[in-house]
């Protein structure tokens, strides 16, 4: 575990009729590396690949995954979910976003772990 940096990054994707999106938290200086730009790019990629249907119903899915040095996403896992219908859309959004950009050059880690929250609201 010494080579894995666990980053808990919570992004909230709030989708309603307007598909409004808000970034809840962001990363800054981690091990001397500013991840804000990297995480914003990741967020944009996942947002483009998030396509639940209205029939899925509202809910919240928290998914964790690891990002390898080369940007490959591995081990996506549902951490919690209030709507199992949304799980497949969350996993699909993460998997279709791989590979991301390589980790920042100043990052000394081989992997980082990320937790991403999808909130789907139909109101």
Keywords:
123 residues, alpha/beta, Fusion Protein Consisting Of Minor Coat Protein, Glycine Rich Linker, Tola, And A His Tag, Chain: A, Domain 2, five-stranded mixed beta sheet, two-stranded antiparallel ribbon
Structure description:
It is a single chain. The chain is α/β, with parallel strands linked by helices and 123 residues long. It has one domain: 2-Layer Sandwich (Fusion Protein Consisting Of Minor Coat Protein, Glycine Rich Linker, Tola, And A His Tag, Chain: A, Domain 2), CATH 3.30.1150.10. The chain contains two helices and seven strands. The strands form two sheets. Strands 1, 2, 5, 6 and 7 form a five-stranded mixed β-sheet that branches. It has a two-stranded antiparallel sheet with strand order 3-4. A hairpin with a 4-residue loop joins strand 5 and strand 6. The radius of gyration is 14 Å and the shape is elongated. It starts with a strand and ends with a strand. Residues 1-26 have low confidence and may be disordered.
